[in-house]
Design a protein that fits this description.
Elements lengths: L2 H13 L2 H30 L3 H7 L4 H10 L15 H12 L7 H26 L7 H44 L6 H35 L5 H14 L1 H25 L8 H36 L6 H4 L16
Length: about 350
């Protein structure tokens, strides 16, 4: 199995199914819109009708923000200069590796749970589309397949949460605590950096292994129409072990594409000091473009991995190969008589 073949096949499959991108993007928009409206009202109530409003029209006012941050709580704590450009991605990544992703506002956690439910509903239709690209597809069949696998994906999501929690909070947090204790009296900064990088690498490798098994378990549920989530996990573990070169090679190619997209956005993303409508619209457009690109990458991962999984399954033999040969008349029996 050539990883590059499935890497390119997955991209072609995603580009041929723009409706899937529309589904996931609109779902994200619907989930995020209430939070955006709530933040808008908080900010509007903070500076509306004051001189700060005029100051903010000319750029970010740090004095106002310090006062706003000191008096805000709950969802207001999530707003700051770090919500613009590439900083949200970096801050979320830091929280993830430190095992502190759960330490966010309950409203954000609630939105995340809603997104997990919506993704569990869409995932069956998405994987079915990638696994059976030769079949005719319709909106009704997409939703029907999504509903069929919803509860199975929801059970798998619970298992995923427990597994990720065990990695980041059960291993990552104690490891960082041990590093802090072990290097408390260390005067060489390089030693602390090396220990921290090694801890991040270990947690990252465990996360990668868990993610690969969980990805192929989702695919096995749909492709093989499995009912048992636990058996799907066993099947995925065996698949990753048997085809580890192709699985890892494909993942590295996809991760390289994601890294290039991340670096491109980091280079182009503007900061918080936008004072004209043109600059604000440009920043908003770049942010939405980055979001669309991330969803394309997510679908690209699923499509490539699904094609790899499908290609590894034994194919049914054509009819002419398994049908028995037609009966022939037996040769005449020679009796030796004239």
């Amino acid at each position: 199995m050539d990883a590059r073949t499935h890497f390119l096949a997955g991209l072609r499959l995603v580009l041929r199914t723009p409706s899937l991108l529309a589904w996931v993007y609109c779902t994200t928009l619907v989930v995020a819109l209430p939070l955006a409206v709530a933040i808008k009202h908080l900010l509007q109530g903070s500076f509306e009708g004051s001189l700060v409003e005029d100051n903010l029209r000319g750029g970010f006012d740090l004095s106002w923000y310090e006062e706003f941050a000191a008096g805000s709580s709950g969802l207001g704590k999530t707003f700051g200069p770090w919500v613009v450009g590439i900083l949200p991605v970096l801050s979320n990544l830091e929280r993830l590796l430190d095992g502190e992703l759960h330490q966010v506002d309950p409203a954000v956690v609630g939105a995340g749970i809603v997104m997990v439910l919506a993704w569990s509903l869409l995932l069956g239709g998405i994987l079915g589309r990638f696994a059976h690209e030769e079949e005719p597809h319709s909106r009704s069949s997409f939703l029907a397949r999504g509903g069929l696998f919803f509860w199975r994906f929801l059970r798998l999501a619970v298992i995923s949460g427990l597994l990720y929690g065990g990695i980041f909070r059960g291993i990552g947090q104690p490891l960082h605590g041990w590093i802090e204790t072990a290097t408390r009296d260390t005067t060489v900064e390089r030693t602390v950096i090396i220990y921290t990088v090694l801890a991040y690498a270990l947690v990252g490798l465990l996360f990668l292994a868990a993610q690969l098994v969980l990805d192929y378990a989702r695919i096995a549920l749909v492709v093989e129409e499995r009912r048992s989530v636990l058996l799907a996990l066993v099947r995925a573990l065996g698949f990753v072990k048997e085809h580890h070169r192709a699985v890892l090679g494909l993942y590295l190619l996809l991760a390289a594409a994601a890294l290039l997209w991340f670096l491109a956005y980091a280079w182009l993303a503007p900061g918080p000091n936008q004072s004209t409508w043109t600059a604000v619209l440009l920043a908003f457009s770049l942010g939405q473009t980055y979001l669309l690109g991330r969803w394309i990458l997510k679908l690209w991962f699923l499509a490539s991995q699904t094609r790899l999984f499908v290609s590894s399954r034994p194919q049914a033999l054509p009819a002419e190969e398994w049908e028995p040969a037609p009966m022939q008349d037996p040769p005449p029996v020679r009796t030796g008589l004239p």
